[in-house]
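Tokens help. Our protein:
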Amino acid sequence: MRKLWAVAGKELRQIMRDPLSLLTLMGFPAFMLVLYGYALNFDVRHVPLAVQDLDHTRASRDVVAAFVNSTYFDVSATPGAAEDLTRLLERRVAKAVLVVPEGFAADLEAARTAQVQLLLDGADALTATTVLGYAGAIVSESNVRVLSRALTRAGQRLDAGIAYEPRVYYNPELKSVRFLVPGLIGLIMMLTGVLSTALSVVREKERGTIEQIRMAPIGSFALIAGKTLPYLALSLFATAFILAMAWGIFGVEIRGSLLDLLAATLLYLLGALGFGLLISTLVNTQALAFQIGLLGSLLPALLLSGFVFQIRLMPVWLQVITHLVPARYYLVILRGIILKGASLRPYWDQMGLLALYATLVLGLATVRMRRAER
């Protein structure tokens, strides 16, 4: 144990003398949280809407007002009858064009079906699908108002229908940032944990000091543990720092137990640091360690963890591969604790898999270190 703390103390002093390591562990996570927290946003609001009203009646203005008052659309242009509407979409003046034809009000008065048209830029399929949903809901509400007015004029009344009262739990405002920020935390901590330990051992190789360490009476386990503990402590501090930033900047507060969050984060970081140490035993240059660490941590955590893309929508063979990505399990726990206020009880499977991953990578790193000593 004394040898372990000696290695840990030496590594901690080296970190404090290296501004780049401190910047990687503290500044980089904060920078990525702010950058991606603002850049990644799936909320669709204030869609630029061009309105071609050829009827110019109160009924047509009511339809346009229904779109604008929903706060989902902002009028960006009012093209005339002879203007090419597709050019508005090509020039990105508008994402959608609402066309109210001449005779719209007359059709309503005559109890005929009144036509409106929505031209939509479908280049961004996700936004286009959301806009279609908004437009459909707005037109449905307008239809109910038209029918109600018609029945009132005829001396009848609209029978009571279904009272639809949705209640959204955990994220009532449906802000995508509340879903994305916990995922960002998992992504950032995986990246910084892997890179910090991968570069630390390779740095020793490049400087030639790794041979001195190997000649010292220190076992592989004490060396691995001593190299890991300082980065584990700093990574936990960095996690607390970015969680505080997430609350202060984006309003994402932790609803669950801090102890549960600490336990899950500890296992996750041990796996990330162990993977970084494993990389450091396989390569001899910092440049190569950085590249492998970046590809091995950033891409899987970004693409295969459920952070951005839903795993259940992926091909079956790709869903199988996602089981090898520890961020997949950590994000489930993280979102459960932070957003839902859940305990660890529903997530014992994920905790067990995180512990298995950490044990495997740390064990492989220890075995690789012993082979290198021979």
